[in-house]
TrEMBL record:
Keyword Kinase: yes
Organism the protein comes from: Flavobacterium hydrocarbonoxydans
Listed name of the protein: Histidine kinase
Transferase listed as a keyword: yes
Keywords for this protein: Kinase, Membrane, Transferase, Transmembrane, Transmembrane helix
Amino acid sequence: MEPDYNETERYQQARKKVTEIKEFYQHLTVFILVSIILIVINLMTSPGYLWFVWCLIGWGMGLVLHGLAAFNLPPFFDKEWEAKKIREILEKDNNKQTWE
C-alpha cells in the first residue's frame, strides 16, 4: 500500500504553518521583554527624552509584518490579488498578440 502523498504534503504544510505561528509568538515575547528593558533603561538614564519610542516603533512595524505573514493576513498582495494580476497580464499579452 502506497502512502498518500497528498496527505503527507498537507501534514508538512500544516506543520510549517504551526512553526511560523510559534516563531511569531516567540518574536512577540522577545519584543515585550526587550521593550520593558529599554523603557527601564531609558527612564533611568535620560527620562527627559523618551528614545525607546523609536525602537518600539521600528521593531513594532517588523513585528506587525511578521504577524500578518504568520497568520496569512497580507494587507496588499494576497492570493486573490495575484490571481487578478495574472489574468490582467495574460489578457494584455493576448491582446498584444492579436494586434501583431
